[in-house]
């Protein structure tokens, strides 16, 4: 407590607190949506066709089309291809979750200690 000029006790006002939004740089530049769900909208925004993307990546348009319909074809984009697609349309290589998952999978495959630590964490969940 503090005292005012007339020596009455006055409660001090609490300092105002500012709350910052909880966003991370990674969240701002990546998506949680699968490539098959996200890519059509991204191509529309850029007014880019699947054929043009295929030409840029040196991949057939039909291969890309099958990746966009995984339920029918059973094909999904590899992590490497997801990274190449992201870069081709001007996004960070790790934009799509398929790329990030491939990096995590590779790390777990090559590091026995990391694999076991990760297993213990997942097993507890």
Describe the protein.
Helix 3 (50-57) crosses helix 4 (61-68) and helix 7 packs across helix 8 (112-124). The protein has helices at residues 25-28, 35-45, 50-57, 61-68, 70-73, 79-88, 97-110, 112-124, and strands spanning 2-3, 9-10. The chain is mainly alpha-helical and 125 residues long. The radius of gyration is 25 Å and the shape is flat. It has one domain (31-124): 434 Repressor (Amino-terminal Domain) (Orthogonal Bundle), CATH 1.10.260.
Topology:
Layout: E1 2-3, E2 9-10, H1 25-28, H2 35-45, H3 50-57, H4 61-68, H5 70-73, H6 79-88, H7 97-110, H8 112-124
Antiparallel strand pairs: 1-2
Helix pairs in contact: 3-4, 6-7, 7-8
In short:
With 125 residues, the chain is mostly helical. It has helices at 25-28, 35-45, 50-57, 61-68, 70-73, 79-88, 97-110, 112-124, and strands spanning 2-3, 9-10.
Distance between the termini: 47 Å
Give the overall average pLDDT.
84
Fraction of residues in helices? Answer: 55-70%
Q: What is the CATH class name?
A: Mainly Alpha
Strand line-up in the sheet with most strands: 1-2
Report the sheet with the most strands, covering strand number, pairing sense and barrel closure.
2 strands, antiparallel
The chain-level structural class is mainly alpha
Please tell me the CATH architecture by its name: Orthogonal Bundle
Q: Mind telling me the C-alpha Rg?
A: 25 Å
Task: Give the overall form.
Answer: flat
Total domain count: 1
Unreliable parts: 16-24
N to C succession of SSEs: EEHHHHHHHH
Strand content: under 5%
- CATH fold group: 434 Repressor (Amino-terminal Domain)
By DSSP (H or I, 4+ residues per run), the number of helices equals 8
